[in-house]
UniProtKB/TrEMBL annotation:
<dbReference type="Pfam" id="PF01037">
    <property type="entry name" value="AsnC_trans_reg"/>
</dbReference>
<dbReference type="InterPro" id="IPR036390">
    <property type="entry name" value="WH_DNA-bd_sf"/>
</dbReference>
<dbReference type="Pfam" id="PF13412">
    <property type="entry name" value="HTH_24"/>
</dbReference>
<dbReference type="InterPro" id="IPR019888">
    <property type="entry name" value="Tscrpt_reg_AsnC-like"/>
</dbReference>
<protein>
    <submittedName>
        <fullName>Lrp/AsnC family transcriptional regulator</fullName>
    </submittedName>
</protein>
<dbReference type="InterPro" id="IPR000485">
    <property type="entry name" value="AsnC-type_HTH_dom"/>
</dbReference>
<dbReference type="InterPro" id="IPR019887">
    <property type="entry name" value="Tscrpt_reg_AsnC/Lrp_C"/>
</dbReference>
<dbReference type="GO" id="GO:0005829">
    <property type="term" value="C:cytosol"/>
</dbReference>
<dbReference type="GO" id="GO:0043565">
    <property type="term" value="F:sequence-specific DNA binding"/>
</dbReference>
<dbReference type="GO" id="GO:0043200">
    <property type="term" value="P:response to amino acid"/>
</dbReference>
<keyword id="KW-0804">Transcription</keyword>
<dbReference type="InterPro" id="IPR049859">
    <property type="entry name" value="LrpA1"/>
</dbReference>
<keyword id="KW-0238">DNA-binding</keyword>
<dbReference type="InterPro" id="IPR011008">
    <property type="entry name" value="Dimeric_a/b-barrel"/>
</dbReference>
<feature type="domain" description="HTH asnC-type">
    <location>
        <begin position="1"/>
        <end position="72"/>
    </location>
</feature>
<dbReference type="InterPro" id="IPR011991">
    <property type="entry name" value="ArsR-like_HTH"/>
</dbReference>
<dbReference type="InterPro" id="IPR036388">
    <property type="entry name" value="WH-like_DNA-bd_sf"/>
</dbReference>
Length: 142
């Protein structure tokens, strides 16, 4: 078996269950526990594994609203606006995009009104941000 396929099998188990023990990963990836430890350490050091997280269903959280917000930014203000967007506490994740918008942000707040306030007061008020297009998440399907 190639090292690449071993890495892929280990990553596949972690993507499916980030809390899997080394023993469980080894069993499911058909390798030894020391091999799992070695590959996970290597993948973390190389920045392939950047963290471990829990998938959360926003409908199950009391007092939590989530929106994916497409953000357009004037090109001459892109670097500054991106830096400022990363500083907003309600912006959980920020991505560059090749789609309809330059940036996509996952924004979380206690309710729809608070989420709208973050978009209007914190995002749209930034110098260089020309538009914000929110899509409020309703039900997690997968």
């Amino acid at each position: 078996m190639s090292a690449e396929s071993t890495e892929r099998r280990i990553l596949s188990v972690l993507e499916d269950d980030a809390q899997a023990s080394y023993a469980e990963i080894a069993n499911r990836a058909d390798v030894s526990k020391p091999t799992v430890r070695k590959y996970i350490k290597k993948l973390e050091e190389e920045g392939v594994i950047v963290g471990y997280s829990a998938d959360v269903d926003p409908k199950k959280l009391a007092g939590q609203s989530i929106a994916m917000v497409g953000i357009d930014v004037a090109s001459e203000r892109y670097v500054e606006a991106t830096r400022k967007l990363k500083e907003i506490a309600a912006v959980e994740s920020l991505y560059t995009s090749s789609g309809d918008h330059m940036l996509m942000a996952e924004v979380r707040a206690t309710d729809g009104d608070s989420l709208a306030a973050v978009i209007e007061d914190d995002i749209l008020s930034l110098d260089g941000v020309t538009a914000a297009h929110p899509s409020f998440l309703q039900e997690r399907l997968k």
